[in-house]
Write a structure and sequence with these properties.
6-stranded mixed beta sheet, 11 helices, about 15% strand
Amino acid sequence: MYIRYEVADKIATISLDRADAANAQNSELLDELDAAWTRAADDDDVAVIVLRAEGKHFSAGHDLRAGSKADWGKITLERIYTNEARRYLEYSLRWRNVPKPSIASVQGRCIAGGLLLVWPCDLIVAADDAQFSDPVVLMGIGGVEYHGHTWELGARKAKEILFTGRPVTAEEAAQVGMVNTVVPRAELDEQTRALATRIAAMPRFGLRQAKRAVNQTLDVQGFYAAIQSVFDVHQTGHGNALSENGLPILVQLEDMKANIE
């Protein structure tokens, strides 16, 4: 089990529990996470959902160690597309549209695939040591599958972090509106819980309609269509990687690991 699920005082707390691997996401973790979101969405005793993580880092992103070099000989772009459409696109969109407020509580590194977990949440509370990054241009890919970069950061800041691969600090993320609040690391759980408790006291139907109003406004502006279309752009990066014979995704693994040491 890679996910812990608890409910108390109208708040469902979903915890990533793979701290020994910096909460890197294998298929099992993502499937368990999706099941937890569905459970919280269907539970009438839950008013607010909190997503958090055990350990030093929120998430090191996709677990690139989950496959071996030998496995890559069996991989086709069609297989990559099918798996990623399910776990990296459909899951994230489903979490975004759960009709209950959600809060991501983030500490340490949140790398690449980690963004697919926090961006679907309605609010983000970040510890002062949090850093957000998407360095997959190193792999010949233009950004992670759920391409919220432009919406979350603005066009020029999105290009900067993609072009350079550098992390965005919690304070910087707050300045551009991606993060709601920055708190001391030692107070992260307490402050997140306090925010969730305040929201849980609000009328549920009003919360549901407020969330729907904001999400629908973003969709009218093109969010949903953009996420879908840029997912296909992302897949051309995999096509490039498969055509190189040097398996650049695996070649860059050591560089990626160095970012979370």
